[in-house]
Automatic annotation (TrEMBL):
Coiled coil: none annotated. Residues 285-316 are annotated as: Disordered. It comes from the Bacteria. Keywords: Membrane, Transmembrane, Transmembrane helix. It comes from Litoreibacter halocynthiae. The chain crosses the membrane at residues 35-54, 66-88, 94-112, 124-141, 147-166, 178-200, 206-224, 233-254, 260-278. The keyword Acyltransferase does not apply. This is Drug/metabolite transporter (DMT)-like permease. Residues 285-304 have a biased composition (Polar residues). The lineage of its organism: Bacteria, Pseudomonadati, Pseudomonadota, Alphaproteobacteria, Rhodobacterales. GO terms for cellular component: membrane.
Length: 316
């Protein structure tokens, strides 16, 4: 098996596990508030995070070198995590994925003011086409839009914003700092809000939350292996396999079937995202924000994938 084929296979496994992780969130979301789910997911992630962060051998303190950017990233990660968990709880899975898939498009746009990168006409057109795909999924005026749709959009925007900030400060901040602050913020914010929504949890539901925590870290490990094995341009599009998992899982467990608008909009968004990845892979400059992101929108409950991999190197 070639390195690219192995990398693609590892990525497919990773995103299959991520999709299963999202199914468990949806099941729990039928009973519990996203605040409670996020809080206990973070609590149960701390032992895994501790083991993971022991790998960080760089010297330094836990004080960020870029405190303002770290605050912005932490706020974005908290919003992203809550929004993702809420969206998965109330919307059909395929629809949530379709909207979240807009994140690479937003990364391309946000890289301009934050990273000072140049986006040329073709990528701008891809972004505009992809955003039209989001409108096809949402169909404002034809379907009733609710807080779930707003949450999915907030997840896409917040995840893109957090990712671009990591690209800006990631080389100067310790991995432990980048990972720990969103986790601690989720713990403190969700913990403060927990008394307002708390519902007693039987041991089996705590077990499901443990599965959420473990699956996020296992999937993250597979994804790191995928990017360290295969080329980013091959591995990155594998994230779109989640729409297939969403269709299968939605039909099997929730009697959800994606409608025609969701399928068409998803196809447009995926095509736009893949085009941007392809254009970046051929770039001879450092303007590759999407290929250097390489993970799902961050929730603060799983490892920041890009922190454990070398940056994508554009062609010379």
């Amino acid at each position: 098996m070639t390195p690219n084929a192995k990398g693609a296979l590892l990525a497919l496994v990773a995103f299959g596990i991520f999709a299963t992780h999202d199914i468990v969130i949806k099941v729990l979301g039928g009973t519990y508030s996203p605040i409670q789910i996020v809080f206990f997911s973070v609590v149960l992630s701390f032992p895994l995070a501790t083991l993971w962060l022991l790998r960080d051998q760089t010297s330094g303190t836990l004080i960020p070198r870029h405190p303002y950017w770290m605050v912005a990233r932490t706020v974005a990660a908290v919003i992203t995590g809550f929004s993702a968990f809420y969206a998965f709880s109330v919307l059909p899975l395929a629809q949530v994925y379709a909207i979240i898939f807009a994140s690479p498009l937003l990364i391309t746009v946000l890289a301009i003011p934050i990273l000072g990168e140049e986006v040329r006409l073709r990528r701008w057109l891809a972004v505009l086409v992809g955003l039209c795909g989001v409108l096809v999924v949402l169909r404002p005026g034809q379907t009733e839009l609710g807080l779930g749709h707003l949450a999915a959009l907030a997840c896409a925007v917040g995840g893109a914003f957090a990712s671009v900030i990591v690209r800006k400060i990631g080389r100067e901040e310790r991995t432990v700092v980048i990972m720990l602050y969103p986790m601690m913020a989720n713990f403190l914010v969700m913990g403060a809000l927990l008394p307002t929504v708390y519902v007693p949890m039987p041991i089996e539901d705590l077990g499901l939350i443990a599965i959420v925590a473990v699956f996020a870290w296992i999937a993250g490990r597979f994804l790191i292996g995928a990017y360290n094995t295969g080329e980013a341009v091959i591995v990155a599009p594998m994230q779109y396999s989640q729409i297939l998992w969403a269709t299968v899982y939605g039909a099997l467990f929730f009697d959800e079937w994606p409608d025609f608008g969701t399928l068409v909009g998803s196809a447009i968004i995926i095509a736009s995202g893949m085009y941007i990845v392809l254009r970046e892979s051929r770039s001879t400059t450092s303007g590759t924000p999407v290929l250097n992101t390489r993970s799902r929108p961050e929730t603060g409950t799983s490892p920041r994938i890009g922190s454990f991999m070398k940056p994508f190197q554009p062609k010379k």
